[in-house]
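Q&A log
Question type: sequence-to-structure
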Amino acid sequence: MVLFSKNLRKNAAIDLRKKGLSYSDIKKEILVPKSTLSRWLRVVKLTEPQTQKLEDRRLKNAKANFQNRILKISRRIEEIKNSSAKDLKEISKRELWLMGIMLYWRERFLHQNESDLKKGVRFTSSDPHIVKFFLRWLKDIGRIEKDEIGFDIFIGQDKKRKDKKIVEQNKNKTTHNVVEANGEVVAEAINYWSQITDLPKDYFAHVYFQKNRRKTSKKKSSKKAHYGLLRIRVKASSMMARQISGWIRAIVEHLDKH
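Response status: OK
Response body:
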């Protein structure tokens, strides 16, 4: 009776396999270990369409499983972010002061702005959040008013718009079109930074196209700010620059002692 039952299940498994079902599907119908199915069905040859159908299904399932894992990881990351965000409640004035010093120190180091002591406070970033933070820092810590601040926008040369086909047809017409297109690029950048800083557009009269210092892949360059770098200048601020330099020196000396 047991032998008959076993043969019955084996024959049923073979019939299902010949219909093009996968091992997993057969296992759901016939409760036997996968190793047993492998032994029973190794002699069964699938047609090319059946094999392709199973492969397509396998790839589809693998893609779905991968996307589910990514989704779970993304949810977990978001949960951690939300949880850790609750750790920071209120930022004291002293904390704000130190955060700004460290941020400015890092920016000076990256751009080697040692001439700040003569030219005054200058800070450059493409990150809108960092720009907002530094403007707040200037207002709350430096007591700097809006009319004491100037801006420069630097747009990468790769953002310049050109049309080679029109160049071949009519150089004069192309020049006009290129200027008009680049005017749109400039207008977009000014409008963007005006919204970010909540300042009128006439604050952003100085816009420059700048050569890219480093060659980057298209994938990396696409991640760069589309609206360029914004340099914040505090007018006639050499004294403030020296004050910040003194704060940085005090932090360095404190770290050296400890």
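Response note: The chain has eleven helices and four strands.
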